[in-house]
Specification:
The chain is mainly alpha-helical. It is built from 3 helices and 2 strands, in the order αββαα.
Length: 72
């Protein structure tokens, strides 16, 4: 009978870092089975967006300038 109650005692009494055993077990299952193993670090670089916009603006400016120099 004591052996059958041991898991329930573990659930009721075990606590680490202020988290009950159920929360710790849920976190272990998430990390081990549900989430992808490799998570690449990705950022949104604001400066690359500005550089790309500047290149597009220059391209549009050269097209407009070349179009206005032609005689009508």
């Amino acid at each position: 009978m004591i052996i059958s109650l041991l898991p329930f005692m573990l659930l009721a009494l075990y606590e680490k870092n202020g988290q009950p055993f159920e929360v710790i077990l849920r976190n272990i299952i998430r990390v081990s089975f549900l989430r992808p193993k490799v998570r690449p670090y990705q950022t949104n670089n604001f400066y690359s967006i500005l550089e790309r916009q500047e290149l597009l603006d220059q391209e549009v400016y050269t097209i407009v300038r070349k179009g206005s120099s032609q005689p009508r």
